[in-house]
Amino acid sequence: MSHFSALTSKLLDGRALTETVERWHSDGETVVFTNGCFDILHRGHVEYLAKAADLGTRLIIGLNTDASVRRLKGPTRPINDEQARALVLSALSFVDAVAMFADDTPYNLIAQVQPDILVKGGDYRVEEIVGYDIVSSRGGRVLTLPFVEGYSTTSTIKKGGL
Question: pTM, whole model, 2 decimals?
Answer without folding.
Answer: 0.91
